[in-house]
Each structure stands twice: as structure tokens, then as C-alpha cells.
């Protein structure tokens, strides 16, 4: 599995390769090929054979460069997730009851793995959360207009006052962030993008557990020590 530093490095090489492909600059393509081959040939088996082909016949340079880019993106997708795997797995399993919300959630993760525009990723994760709230509350109101009803729903489910307030405040700040930093701007810092993606995932899982009446057992220290 890729850690965050390894992911950032590979994503950087993928971006450089994509730019060289779009510019059709043979010199840049050969340079990036040499670096990628030296760094990742042991991890991605196709690299050596693709590189040998373009060294034998330059006419394959552009085609094989596109193939290499696909290899990098696929490797990132298979070996790195922005959110802890167990959390993703839990959410995807629970969201099968809400297919529209699930589709948007998976879209956000896929775009994040492909290093696409931050605005599209955050739009998707927000829409996933909004669709889930609508399904749980059985209405079609926007997330902003569902805050009061959501608070009542959580209260009816015996959620603590403090957690309800925390949940509602987080939604308010998420909406403000969306309005101030996302709607008209793709330049969202990577750290903030990941933070919001992870935070929203946790909120989605919590709401799913509450709505589906799923309880996780918590053991006190003395119970563990006396076991």
C-alpha cells in the first residue's frame, strides 16, 4: 500500500506525464519516462516492456505514454485510499440501502484517487451527504434547510445533546467552507481536501448507524482489565 508521501510523489509524476502528453513534447516525454522507469519499474511490471518498445520504435512514444499514465493511475487507485479502508468498507456496505448517496460517495473517492479537480470531489461528497440526509428524513430539502429536522431526528434517536450540537455545527461550517472556498475555486489545499473528505465520511457513517439503529459496543477500562 502507498503511504501519503508515496502517493503524492506518484501523483506528481502522473501529472507531469499527462502534461507532456498534452503538449506532445517528445523530449519531455522521454525525460519523464526515464525517471518513472527508474523509480517504479519494480512496482509496475508493464513499465519495462512499454519503455523497451519506445526505445526500439519512437512512433510508439505517445501511445505508450498514454498507457503508462493509465498504469500509474490504476496503481494509485489500487494501492491508496484517502480514507481508512475499514471506514470506506463500512460506509459502502451501509450505503447500499441508499444507492444515490452511494454513487456520489464512490464518485468522490474515485476522483480523489485520480487526482481530479478538488471542487468536483467536494461537490460529490457533499451531495452524497445531502442525499443521505434527504433519504433518512424522507424529504427533498437542501442540506442547509434540513438542519433543524436533522437535529430533531437525532434527538428522537436518543442522541446526546452535545453530539447533536457538534454534528449541526460541523454541517454549518461545511456549508460555509463550500460557499467560500469551493463553489468558485478549484485551488483547495490538499490537506483541507482530505480533511473534509474524511470528516464527511465519519459523519455519513454516524448518521447511517443512527438511522439503521446500529450500535457498537464500547468497553470501559475496568471491564477490559477484569476480563
What does this structure look like?
With 227 residues, this protein is mainly alpha-helical. The protein is built from 11 helices and no strands. Helix 1 runs antiparallel to helix 4 (61-79), helix 6 (99-113) packs antiparallel against helix 7 and helix 7 runs parallel beside helix 10. The longest helix is centred in the C-terminal third of the chain and has 22 residues, at 161-182. It is elongated, with a radius of gyration of 22 Å. Mean pLDDT is 86; it is low at 217-227.
Brief account:
With 227 residues, the chain is mostly helical. 74% of the residues lie in helices and 0% in strands.
Features:
single chain; 227 residues; mainly alpha
Write the H/E string, N to C: HHHHHHHHHHH
Q: Whole-number average pLDDT?
A: 86
Structural class: mainly alpha
Helix content: over 70%
Biggest sheet descriptor: none
Topology:
Elements: H1 4-23, H2 26-40, H3 46-56, H4 61-79, H5 85-94, H6 99-113, H7 118-137, H8 147-156, H9 161-182, H10 190-211, H11 221-225
Amino acid at each position: 500500500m502507498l503511504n501519503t508521501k508515496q502517493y503524492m510523489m506518484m501523483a506528481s509524476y502522473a501529472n507531469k506525464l499527462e502534461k507532456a502528453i498534452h503538449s506532445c513534447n517528445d523530449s519531455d516525454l522521454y525525460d519523464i519516462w526515464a525517471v518513472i522507469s527508474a523509480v517504479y519499474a519494480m512496482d509496475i511490471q508493464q513499465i519495462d516492456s512499454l519503455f523497451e518498445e519506445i526505445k526500439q520504435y519512437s512512433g510508439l512514444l505517445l501511445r505508450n505514454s498514454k498507457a503508462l499514465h493509465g498504469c500509474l493511475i490504476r496503481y494509485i487507485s489500487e494501492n491508496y485510499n484517502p480514507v481508512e479502508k475499514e471506514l470506506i468498507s463500512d460506509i459502502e456496505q451501509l450505503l447500499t440501502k441508499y444507492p444515490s448517496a452511494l454513487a456520489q460517495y464512490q464518485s468522490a473517492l474515485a476522483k480523489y484517487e485520480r487526482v481530479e479537480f478538488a471542487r468536483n470531489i467536494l461537490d460529490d461528497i457533499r451531495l452524497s451527504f445531502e442525499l443521505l440526509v434527504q433519504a433518512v428524513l424522507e424529504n427533498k430539502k437542501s442540506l442547509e434547510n434540513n438542519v433543524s429536522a436533522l437535529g430533531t431526528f437525532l434527538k428522537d434517536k436518543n442522541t446526546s445533546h452535545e453530539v447533536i450540537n457538534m454534528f449541526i455545527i460541523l454541517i454549518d461550517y461545511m456549508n460555509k467552507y463550500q460557499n467560500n472556498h469551493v463553489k468558485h475555486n478549484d485551488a483547495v489545499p490538499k490537506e483541507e481536501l482530505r480533511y473534509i473528505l474524511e470528516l464527511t465520511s465519519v459523519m455519513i457513517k454516524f448518521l447511517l448507524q443512527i438511522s439503521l439503529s446500529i450500535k457498537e459496543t464500547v468497553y470501559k477500562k475496568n471491564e477490559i482489565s477484569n476480563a
